[in-house]
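Lab notes, practical 5.
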Amino acid sequence: MTEDPDREEDERWRSSLLKIIYGYDVREATDALLALSLDEPDREWIEEVLLRLLDAPVDRQVRELAVTCLGHVARLHRTISPRVVTRLRELAEDPELRLRVPNALSDIRVFALRS
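Output from the prediction step:
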């Protein structure tokens, strides 16, 4: 059985963006993260990526954008996993991320029906 060419292309696209996100150029990383968050059709997959980034050894700006992008995912997909809300609430006191959390939670409240 042969692989689906579109699926292979999607995997290459994801892989290339993830490599940039975990790289050293913050501007490229944030651009790649935003592109992935806005264009990835698999909500559960992108949620997992974003949740992992919250604790990853990446630049603070990448982590901050991951919080914001969770709100974008909720807005775009009109749903979000309950564990995203739980994790964001846990971060409400995080000194690096707490300023981004209220906006992400607001997007989730306004646009998403929790799945």
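Observations recorded by the TA: The CA atoms of residues 5 and 11 lie 10 Å apart. The radius of gyration is 14 Å.
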